[in-house]
Amino acid sequence: MNNNADILIDIKNITKKYDNGFTALDDVSLQIKKGEIIALLGPNGAGKTTLISTICGIITPTSGSISVGGFDTLKDYRDTRKMIGLVPQELTTDAFETVFDTVSFTRGLFGKPRDNSIIEKILKDLSLWDKKDNKLRELSGGMKRRVLIAKALSHEPDILFLDEPTAGVDVELRKDMWNVMRALSKTGVTIILTTHYIEEAEEMADRIGVISKGRILLVEQTSELMRKLGHKEMIVEISEPLDTLPASLQAFDLTLSDDRKFITYSYNANQEHPGITRLLKALIDADIRTTDISTKQSSLEDIFVNLVRDAA
Ligand SMILES: Nc1ncnc2c1ncn2[C@@H]1O[C@H](COP(=O)(O)OP(=O)(O)OP(=O)(O)O)[C@@H](O)[C@H]1O
Ligand SMILES: [Mg+2]
Fold first, then answer.
1. Rounded-to-integer distance, Cα 146 and Cα 105, Å
2. Mind listing the pLDDT tens digit for each residue in 189-228?
3. Which among 205, 222, 189 is positioned nearest to 84, based on CA atoms?
4. Fewer CB atoms < 10 Å away: N or C end of the chain?
5. Percent of the chain with pLDDT over 90
6. Phi, psi of 199, rounded to the nearest 5 degrees
7. What is the CA(215)–ligand 2 centre distance, in A?
8. Which of the following CATH numbers is that of domain 231-298: 3.30.420.40, 2.40.170.20, 3.30.70.1560, 3.90.1150.10?
9. pLDDT tens for each residue of 174-187
10. Ligand 1 pocket residues where CB is under 6 Å
11. For the chain, what are the domain ranges?
């Protein structure tokens, strides 16, 4: 990243060792640009919530530093916290308060003047307006999650952290929430979300960071990562082991297995003409008989597995 002025959040070599000695973040560095939507993907226990909590100043890192809008998250806690809205992973709401009051109250906690029209807009955007006088205990799980988003937006933050915002939310509502996030992004809000859903990351994020065992294994443009996810392999089992691949097959991206009984063809599932028909014809022309064919597509899980293995 060459233009430093665009960088809103600068995470430098963050390590977090919890009191029990467990290292949840291990030398994490990441720069997030203003207006960006970035998704953090990673298995349970990867360190996503720890990372978010550290940026928000809720957890103190063991070493390293984070600046938000040029302010240090430790030294200038008040300045950075004001800029941030956080939707926590855990559903914690005060059961007996009403939707409107809890959101309005949260705005006050951030020292912002009471403004009913802003709260009304937020609740309408999140399809919660008709529930504004309901007590929180009278809401469904998905509605409670939206109330948490409303609370996080109540003080009009520049940065919104969403820790698994759509866990336990139905498909329809998930789409509504994606639209809310997109609309916020258009107004210039920088969004960092964690998710286990690859389609959510693909749909929402400009960039995707993969995190595992406290380390960031990769941060990439979503389109680039999706291209990699399109990597597919066709495995052809042949009746007679081959010594070498014939020259007539050189045009294809092929590898011969060590036991010489399998030919693997690598191609991109997103491309229009993957060349399978041509390959099969070329095999027949080369007098290579096939006994079985199977295909394998790399999934996010494969990417995880490969990354984690390479990192070990
Ligand atoms: N207060 C704590 N004390 C000790 N270890 C902790 C503490 N909080 C979290 N951990 C450990 O740190 C690791 C990372 O936890 P974290 O909650 O950041 O993961 P996550 O990526 O958010 O996972 P999930 O997808 O399940 O939400 C886990 O192994 C967890 O057990
Ligand atoms: Mg978490």
1. 16
2. 999 999 888 778 888 999 999 998 999 988 999 888 877 7
3. 189
4. C
5. 59
6. -70, -30
7. 14
8. 3.30.70.1560
9. 888 888 889 889 98
10. 18, 20, 22, 24, 42, 44-50, 89
11. 4-227, 231-298
Answering whether pTM is above 0.70, one says: yes
Going by C-alpha positions, the residue among 157, 67, 166 that lies closest to residue 112 is 157
Check residue 206 and give its pLDDT: 95
Span from the CA of 279 to the centroid of ligand 2 (angstroms): 45
- Smallest CA separation from ligand 1 atom 1, residue: 18
Longest CA–CA span in the chain (Å) reads 80
- Ligand 1 nearest atom to the CA of residue 53, by list position: 18
CA of 104 to the centre of ligand 2 (A): 27
Q: What CATH superfamily is the domain 4-227?
A: P-loop containing nucleotide triphosphate hydrolases (3.40.50.300)
Tell me how far the alpha carbon of residue 107 lies from the centroid of ligand 1, in angstroms.
Answer: 29
